[in-house]
Amino acid sequence: MAYIPRIQTKKDLKDYILRQLGAPVINIEITDDQLTDAIDNALELFMQRAYAGVVSRNVPLEILEGKQSYTLPYEVFAVMAIKTTEMGGITNQTPTDLFSMNRFLAADLYKGNGKVDLLSYEMTNELLSTINLLFSKKCTFDFNCISKELYLFEIPTITEVGMVECYIKNVPVYSENPIDGQPEIETTNIYNELIVKNLATAYGRRQWADNLMKYSGSQLPNGLVIDVPSISTRAEADVLKYELEIQEMYSLPVDFMIG
């Protein structure tokens, strides 16, 4: 039986946060919108810092003659390169790779013909890569991750379809609600990630502590006093702990060069 995550929607995660804060035993004074903000903030931090928060994709882009500025989808986090047929240069690969040199060589080896000189093949590949690096066209660009504007420094002289090599955020997807007449519901595995649940709960606890500040210094009818400072102190400690955990355990190591 396939594993099905327990928490797949934002509503599921909201219910989880409330339970972690003590509901229904304790009356948690926090609004639904504030829970939404806590979850969104946790997701945003996770997608910015965690390697699992983004995925590598090639997004198609129609490059128009004379147009330098393009707006990419909101999910795009970073742009690595722009590839087009005109900028591809010399290569041993076809766009689909279905009829490439590698395909034929792999088939030949699989059949046991043994006619392939792998050393010569590797040297040829290196030569083609060097030629492509030196003589192919390069597309210089600038990308703003806030406005999502992709700006080409050179003015395109033709209209063509290109591929934008980029990282996109691992955002929730939408699936059809089985109930007729209802809107689509948000579903994703990211809500079930332990660090996302912990961080969203910490943000929710901090918001709850801020809401309880209205009781600061006052005594309840039963004579009890709400210990708001303790709730706030724990919330801040949890936020710091889980933000640091994302940075240390969920981020890729920083690349460096030696030599």
Explain what this protein looks like in three dimensions.
The structure is a single chain. The chain is an alpha+beta fold and 259 residues long. 38% of the residues lie in helices and 17% in strands. The chain folds into two domains: 10-52 and 172-249, no CATH class; 54-169, no CATH class. The strands form three sheets. It has a three-stranded antiparallel beta sheet with strand order 1-6-3, with no helix packed on it. Strand 4 and strand 5 (149-152) form a beta hairpin. The longest helix has 22 residues, at 228-249.
Outline the secondary-structure elements.
Layout: H1 10-21, H2 32-49, E1 54-63, E2 69-71, E3 76-83, H3 101-110, H4 118-135, E4 141-144, E5 149-152, E6 160-169, E7 173-175, E8 185-187, H5 194-212, H6 228-249
Antiparallel strand pairs: 1-6, 2-5, 3-6, 4-5, 7-8
Summarize the entry for a quick read.
The chain has helices at residues 10-21, 32-49, 101-110, 118-135, 194-212, 228-249, and strands at residues 54-63, 69-71, 76-83, 141-144, 149-152, 160-169, 173-175, 185-187. It is of the alpha+beta class. It folds into two domains: 10-52 and 172-249, no CATH class; 54-169, no CATH class.
SSE order: HHEEEHHEEEEEHH
Q: Summarize the biggest pleated sheet.
A: 3 strands, antiparallel
How many β-strand stretches? 8
- The proportion of residues forming helix, as a percent range, comes to 25-40%
Approximate strand percentage: 15-25%
Distance separating the two termini: 51 Å
Q: How would you state the average pLDDT, rounded? A: 80
What is the number of independent domains? 2
CA gyration radius, whole angstroms: 26 Å
Can you count the helices?
6
